Amino acid sequence: MTRKIIFVLLFTATIMACVPDDKNPVSDPTITINTNSESLSKRFSLEGSGVVEIFGPDILNGRLSEEDLPAGKVPLMMVSQVKPPVLEGKELTATHVDISDNYAFVSYNTVGPVFLGAIEIFDITDPLHPQIISQAVFKNGDVNSLSFKNGVLYAAAAFDIDQEPNIKTAAQLVKVHVSNGKFTSEFSKYDIEGYAAVDVCTTSEDIAVASGSNGLVGLFNGTGEMHKNFHLDDLRAVKFGNDVIAVLSGTDGIKILKPSNLETIQNIWIEKDIAESKRTLDMAPGLLFASEGLRGVGVYSTSTGSFLQRLSIPIKPEGVEEGDVVTNAVSYADGKVFMANGGAGVAVSQIVENDVLEEIGILGISGSSNFIKAYNGFIFVASGRQGLQILNLTQKDELALTNEISCNGFGVYDGNANLNVNTGENVGYAGAVSLKNVNVGGNLTFCGSMAIESSLNINSDGMFLMNGSLVFGQYNKNNNLSINSNATMKVFGDLVIYGNLNLNSGSTLEFVGEGNKVTIFGNFQRGQNVTIKGDFIDTEGKLK
Predict the structure, then answer these.
(1) Residue 91 and residue 48: Cα distance in Å, rounded?
(2) Rounded Cα distance, 174 and 224, in Å
(3) What is the C-alpha separation between 445 and 405, in angstroms, rounded?
(4) Any idea what DSSP says for residue 60?
(5) d(CA 414, CA 429)
(6) How many CA atoms lie within 13 A of 133 on its CB side?
(7) What one-character-per-residue DSSP string does 435-480 give?
(8) Does the structure show a pLDDT above 80 at 422?
(9) pTM assigned to the model
(10) What's the whole-number average pLDDT of the chain?
């Protein structure tokens, strides 16, 4: 959380007034709209993309060597890294992400005394090829949090009131209509007491906004009128779910409030937190997750306020200062809890029986993690000035194609991360799995979702039948998917290759059924007498 009380001389720039029209509906000269998607999307990079390993607790604690590493159960890939925007010579910091359907909304601010922020809209319809569709730059304001609902985007922001004559407070609720990834109305600003609005969420009826250090939660209706408020010092976060509003204070713990009138239902005591640090809340059915800095994540009951479990930060990497090993944010999706632990990376836990969370491990991605948002298979990780990392869970329902690739009677694979099928063996598995290396000498059938990090080798006379989705390799790591002489690979579903595809002489790659898709980001090598057949979409044009 950045609190800007002492206003300093701002940067000087030539401000050109915007004339509203169908493409640019904004007439506010302090807000600049950019809809040049090609230019904005140049900040995407494939570096670091590909299969992401999850290091389990046994590896982290030294109880297992890499040779004994068990197969993972969460197939995950890094889709892209996105550099932060640079505006007026200043590099912005990603602060928050909200996701709705095929769009992700990302907010930015500027570290230090200068007010300069932005909102960008990402089109994530194609998980492998995200694009930035629109950008709104706030020349006098920081944007700290976002919430989207029913075609309207709400932002918690802080403005320089000396440069914004039409507002009375530095803390502001900002509202704008959005359609098809574009801003379609003026940006409306609404006063809320305080130096900075730090978080925002929508309830079934209202918009709840948290104003920072001087502590105020305000309920706004659709016309921008604040009709209820609740004072609480050092507010960090506000979240609606389970028919309640939860608010997090760095000094006074957590309050569970009625969404209609902000009356207190439950008080949850937590230890005092580091001053002015960004924290978040999230919810699952009946559960509340709170990022609590050095203490990791606290898990509480929303109905009783009782403490249920603590998810501690699993590791403290060497060379990372203690103050940077803190849980800045928490996000829940599809039974999994993701913790952004600063210099300790991103930890993942899974809800098992009786709402107990079981640690899965640490994501194998680089950089510090300041914010995280998981939704519908996507995971956005904000790393401050390092920008965003976009990940995608590749889990997919297994597909039945009885004539070509039968999936009947297969169990899950629970063996080693290095899967070897010897000559003469005929095995099949189903479900979701993440592996290091796969070597096929006999016949292997897999139905569901598979991620392979380093190598996939189909030996002569071997056959691999894949029904569902397969992600292979890492970009620029020289990983090889090799189909050798007289070997066959049959695919029904989606095949994504970040490494290299080698079809050696006499090999066969066959796509069975309809609607198949193959994406190859690495190199393609084709030997003599190679057969490629079937119905498929080659998104990168590599198999021509």
Answers:
(1) 21
(2) 9
(3) 8
(4) H
(5) 10
(6) 19
(7) EEEEEESSEEEEEEEEEEEEEEEE-TT-EEEEEEEEEE-BTTTT-E
(8) yes
(9) 0.92
(10) 91
